[in-house]
UniProtKB/TrEMBL annotation:
Protein name listed in UniProt: Thioesterase domain-containing protein
Cited PANTHER family: S-ACYL FATTY ACID SYNTHASE THIOESTERASE, MEDIUM CHAIN, THIOESTERASE
Keywords associated with the record: Hydrolase
Pfam families, per database record: Thioesterase (PF00975)
SMART domains in the record: PKS_TE (SM00824)
The UniProt record lists the keyword Membrane: no
Classification of source organism: Bacteria, Bacillati, Actinomycetota, Actinomycetes, Micromonosporales
Length: 289
């Protein structure tokens, strides 16, 4: 991990780096399969959310989260252009990050939103439903079965706290052994902070750069109307659901879509897409490089 916040999946290559923004868990590791999906000359980085696996306090708002990612990215890899990708909540943060990068004079030759719901088009769960969503997300992201845990949680009183829910899951032995009580509480706290930040975020300003929405076939198209927020949106539908697109046929289709999106980002000088007058690198973050 570089700068305690950036996972380098592939360091070398002549194209602008593909920078992957984490989903609600804050983890960079779901993006590891991208190394095998993109061209050999494509650098790939994945950001890690503050508080995921270190002592940094979690970001309390989505703009704060994006600002921290921008600072980490520019410290780890100063450049004049970045391609951005975000899955789920990561797509919403990537959208805001793209706005910030372009405002700072950086090129964003590709913005890829992977199965990302427009934040203003959905309501987020509370109480036990919120805990259930956390558990399902945690298990499904790693390819674990979710129905045994969902059944246990469905049998609890509606007012059950996360601590009570995790105790019930432990007693039922429906979770992998490495997901102990303290781990669940730590990861739930970050999930809860991120979900609150997402629910309060309202995109403004629009976006006129190229956007590719890669939507899972089983996901609701009506909740992913990014053309209300961006003027140049291309949608690609891949087989599977929100989680299975990271495995098997869905992952292969995601790889094809991603290579198509990145096919014109030829070199790290950004010659094809840099706006007139762009400097060799984005302005440095506060405090220097």
């Amino acid at each position: 991990m570089t700068d305690h916040a950036v996972l380098t999946i592939r360091a070398t290559g002549h194209r602008p780096a593909l920078c992957c923004v984490p989903a609600i868990s804050g983890s960079p590791y779901p993006y590891l399969p991208l190394r095998a999906l993109v061209e050999a000359d494509q650098p790939v980085l994945a950001l890690e959310a503050p508080g995921f696996d270190d002592g940094r306090p979690p970001a309390g708002s989505l703009p704060e989260l994006a600002a921290g990612y921008l600072d980490s990215l520019r410290r780890a890899r100063p450049d004049r252009a970045y391609a951005l990708l975000g899955w789920s909540m990561g797509g919403v943060v990537a959208y805001h990050l793209a706005q910030r990068l372009r405002a700072a004079g950086c090129g964003v030759p590709a913005l890829v939103l992977v199965d990302s719901i427009v934040p203003t088009l959905t309501r987020h769960p509370e109480g036990l439903a919120r805990t259930t969503r956390f558990v399902v997300d945690l298990l499904a992201t790693s390819g674990q079965p979710v129905e045994p845990a969902r059944a246990v949680l469905a049998g609890l009183p509606a007012g059950s706290s996360p601590e009570e829910a995790f105790t019930a899951l432990s007693r039922a032995r429906v979770l992998p052994d490495d997901l102990d009580h303290s781990f669940l509480l730590h990861r739930y706290a970050l999930f809860d902070t991120h979900l609150t930040a997402l629910s309060r975020y309202r995109p403004t300003g629009g976006y006129d750069g190229p956007v590719t929405l890669v939507r899972a076939a089983d996901s609701p198209a009506e909740l992913m109307r990014w053309d209300d927020l961006a003027t140049d949106v291309t949608e690609i539908v891949v087989p599977g659901d929100h989680y299975s697109i990271w495995r098997g046929e869905g992952l292969a289709a995601l790889g094809r879509a991603l290579r198509r999106c990145l096919s014109t980002t030829y070199d790290d000088r950004g010659r094809l897409y840099a706006r007139k007058g762009t400097a060799d690198a984005c302005p440095p973050p506060p405090g220097g490089a």
